[in-house]
Amino acid sequence: MDQYQLLFISTPSIGNLVPTVQFARRLTLRDPCFSATVLIIPLPQRTIVNAYVQSLPTSASDINFIYLPPVEPPTPGQYSSFLGYLSLLLDKHKPHVKHAISNLVSTTAQSPVAGLFVDMFTASMIDVANQLGIPCYLFFASPASFLGFMLHLPALDTQLAADFVDSDAGLIVPKDSVIELIIPTFKQPLPPSILPTSVLKRNKDGYSSYLNNALRYKETVGIVVNTFLELEPHAIDSLSVSGLPPLYPVGPIFDLSVAAQWHPYGTQQDSIIKWLDDQPPSSVVFLCFGSMGSLDGPQLREIAIGLERSGYRFLWSIREPPGELELPGQYANVESVLPVGFLERTAGSGLVCGWVPQVGILGHQAIGGFVSHCGWNSILESLWYGVPIATWPIYAEQQMNARLMEDEDEVKAKVREMKSKSRMTLMENGSSYKSLGNLIKEIIGRKQGVIKP
Q: Using CA atoms, how far apart are residues 12 and 122, in angstroms rounded to an integer?
């Protein structure tokens, strides 16, 4: 049997790195002719990401990892956002990525490199793939609907320049309040206000990062997206047109293992699960806003008042807003940001905590509802366990994800049915199973010369 290597390079964030690693594992498990190597970009400021990276040799021992050497980081005057910082960092890493791949190619001649997978924000590494003559694929960890937005962004840029103006808030706003945006992967026109904040800051480096990455997607030979046909039929059909690289919806992809095994705050898990064990089935609403999500004091106090008045049981994960380039942390004294006496008055019905192992919580029988920021990983996890979502988008594409949950009637009305579909799609003859098989045939066929560049 011929052997081939697949390479992956991901944005150094939990939301991108975790599904990238899991996708690499799925490919190697599906076809033993593949081995996978993930190139890790160091980012010292992200302690949670670093903890996950350090766990990988044990938790994902079937994957090889190359840790890129540190580079001189961009200075604060060179960027105004994390995406601007990341773009500069990736440019500095290109020589190291090329060197690492070249070494791999020269030392493993019996297993030629069959492809390099970049992600949503590492598309500049297509340059390295081209220099080394390696086919490049895009692994898109967000929904197909948002992939469609990114592919449409270069055309949309013209409309944003002509029909929008700067506001006092630093965001662009439409000249005419009735303007709506037509994005083919969404069933209904979108109000401009739900676009990612970085896109609405059109004169900043975050927008440049979105646009520059989006412009490169069509240069890949295939696009793999973390969704499945039954979840996004309209978006997937909209993307199956000529002029775009072949689309492979292979989701859902996420890590079902318990993050508490590697997370710095994982010691809390036992007490949280014990509390849930004492609650009736489907009686607890779970509030959690993702690895990068945090709310300010006034919002926290309003949520607390609402929870107390509702009388429902709740598990509420509260994170302290982060510093620049960092992720939210733990409050030293969470009581200080909540209404006076709230913890005492709700002690019999609720539990307030810091970080929680979200997958483990969503899978618990006591959970009956999920108040979520609508990060795509969170949506896929909630559907996997059949937990209804109340949307509370905060940043990035989350408002667009929330709109997807509202637009797709089948998702909104039949979340428990989607639980079954999200599992069946991965089984033999399921849509994602077949799509992954087609991707494997493409990779091997291209390497063997059956599929021409």
A: 10
Instruction: Give the bridge partners for 424, in sequence order.
Output: none
Cα three-residue angle 37-38-39, rounded to 5 degrees: 120
For 100, the token pair is 């690492």
Cα separation, 385 vs 409, in Å, equals 18
> Cα–Cα distances in Å, from 201 out to 174, 176, 205, 257, 273?
13, 18, 8, 37, 42
- β-pairing, 367-372 vs 389-391, is parallel
Task: Report d(CA 284, CA 364) in Å as an integer.
Answer: 10
| The pLDDT of residue 51 | 80
Rounded Cα distance, 432 and 423, in Å: 10
Burial, 244: exposed, middle or buried (Cβ in 10 Å; 0-12, 13-18, 19+)? middle
- Residue 423 has what pLDDT? 96
Reference 400, options 181, 222, 212, 84; nearest CA is 181
Neighbour tally for 253: CB within 10 Å: 26
C-alpha–C-alpha distance, residues 402 and 392, integer Å: 8
In our burial notation (b when 16+ CB lie closer than 10 A, e otherwise), range 121-160 reads bbbbbbbbbeeeebbbbbbbbbbbbbbbbbbbbeebbeeb
| pLDDT in the model for residue 44 | 77
* pLDDT, tens only, 418-448: 899 999 999 999 999 999 999 999 999 998 8
Low-confidence ranges of the chain (pLDDT < 70): 1, 109, 258-267, 291-294, 322-329, 332, 406-413, 452-453
pLDDT score of 195: 93
SS3 of 175, please?
Answer: coil
Four-residue CA torsion sign, 152, 158, 164, 167: positive
| Nearest-angstrom CA–CA distance, 202 and 165 | 10
Q: What angle do helix axes 14-30 and 376-384 make, rounded to 10 degrees? A: 50
Supply angle C-alpha 422, 423, 427, rounded to 5: 125
* 126 neighbors 219 (Cβ within 8 angstroms): yes
SS3 (DSSP) at 21 = helix
Per DSSP, helices labelled H in 10-74 are: 14-30, 47-59
Q: Are 372 and 379 in contact (CB under 8 A)?
A: yes
- Pick from 421, 413, 425, 409: nearest CA to 187: 409
pLDDT at 341: 93
Q: Position of tokens 């103006």? A: 165
Alpha carbon distance 383, 391 (integer Å) = 13
